[in-house]
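Handoff note, outgoing to incoming analyst
You'll be picking up this chain. Sequence as last confirmed:
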Amino acid sequence: MPANALIWVGLICCLTALGIQIFPNAAFQAGVDVGAAWLVFGFGVFLIVIATAIGLARGDAQKR
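Most recent structure output, in case you need it:
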């Protein structure tokens, strides 16, 4: 998966988790585990960090 796609998926995970935290009643009514929203946020941050590392590694390899 390209690093650009990983960044977008991570961003969507982070925004979804923040939306769940902002509207917990609506999320609960939809059947979402509100307590697990921070796990989704953490996963999104993880994807963004990994995509950045992949991008930096590919950038270094292209300069050589």
